[in-house]
Amino acid sequence: MEPGNNTGVPEFLLVGISEDPELQPLIFGLFLSMYLVTVLGNLLIILATISDSHLHTPMYFFLSNLSFVDICFTSTTVPKMLMNIQTQSKAITYAGCITQISFFLIFLELDNFLLTVMAYDSHIRHMEPENDTQLSEFLLLGFSEQAEIQPLIFGFFLSMYLVTVLGNLLIILATISDSHLHMPMYFFLSNLSFVDICFTSTTIPKMLVNIQTQSKAITYAGCITQMYFVLLFSGLDSFLLTDGLRQICDHLSSPVLHGHHEPPALQTLVLACWIMSVLNSLLHSFVVLRLSFCTDLEVPHFFCELNQVVHHACSKTFINDMMIYITALLLGGGPLTCILYSYSKVVSSIQKISSTLGRYKAFSTCASHLTVVSLFYCTVLVVYLSSSVSQNTFNCNILIYTVVSPMLNTFIYSLRNKDIKNALRRLLGSTPGKESVDPLQ
Which SUPFAM superfamilies match (predicted)? Predict the structure, then answer.
């Protein structure tokens, strides 16, 4: 591997539209007025669509989101320009420049995406008669309707949820508090732990509340929201697992350089994962909003799963089905291929370890990592690509990738990792044992 570029760039200079000092007040006034019109106008649109029940339709839902994105888009560039004119400075720091580029690209893509969806929405509304049937709620059937086993299901899921949340919180605290873990592999691990907490919190608490209240209902808006966040955090899980394993490969291939990556590069990579996951979730959610549902629907799961919601629709679902297959292949099959390739490099690097015990420990750790990763990706692919599995098999696969996999990540990346265990001992005030020299072990 080539060494990173260590050239320090303290700042960039933003030349602006003109360097003529006589034109600066005119430019300032022009851009300030346009900025204020943009912000105030779009805020009024957002407030109008929120406060008026007559505007609670897909068209105005997209419009209000577009208005919010437009405010953020202009706020990414214009305020900095106005400040530079006022202070007679052209400077922007390196970190500030990278951050500005990142948010500019995010809101630019969101703008393009929302405009495309709005055009599609307009086309559909003119092609098909509007369905005035109002769907109030879905029913989440869960795993069983037998009253006598509900306490057992409640205790089982509550215990798994608590283990997942507490275990991942400890990993996050350990990686933040211990300077020995301030390296790329653990940066991605702490992000993965945060996402796993959010992932399980999207589904299990609602299930536990339903069991306690003996209710199966979830509102239409609640179902769409839950589906959105499930897609968001499952996508992030997929991307972060891939990036984390790449960091393991980098460490094994060149341990000298490990930990010397530029922090902005890592943050940009995680930001890119968020952007792709958000766009994927928005894409599916917006297209589901176009579907018509005839009556209250029974979803045979403990949360609103995309496939089941789509297949219970009364309107045509061809576009939804195609999107599910394509995104499952891209976001499931693509990262899984990258991970298998990464592990081939890991195995090749492990074979170079001279110690037999060291090779055994490394292979053992890799096997446990690969088991959890395979469980996650294979069950996701079965859920979204297969249409011939039984309902029990379907439920089992959903349980594995939404609940079991995030819980297992806690054990795999903490109990089998000496650096994490030593950091946890220091965090809890006990004396750590001998520190490992390899974060993979």
Answer: Family A G protein-coupled receptor-like
